[in-house]
Design brief:
Elements: H1 2-74
């Protein structure tokens, strides 16, 4: 009877270990999904900021070119 009780305890332990591993794997997968989402959002924000900076740069470049053209017309 003691042997059967010991076997049941081992089986219960193995089942608990598998369940714990499943929980750890689920948490790891959820973390990776959150990291991937955060990375995608950061890349989107970077692209938006880069486009904004480039737009400002091109505007200033155009203004500079127009001023040069105006100066050349006057001379």
């Amino acid at each position: 009877m003691e042997a059967n009780r010991g076997q049941g305890g081992i089986q219960q332990f193995l089942a608990a270990e598998q369940e714990a591993q499943h929980i750890v794997n689920s948490a790891r997968n959820a973390k990776m999904a959150r990291l991937k989402q955060a990375k995608e959002e950061a890349e989107k924000q970077i692209a938006e900021y880069r486009a904004l900076v480039e737009k400002g740069f091109k505007r200033k470049l155009d203004e500079s070119s127009n001023k040069r053209a105006d100066i050349q017309m006057l001379t």
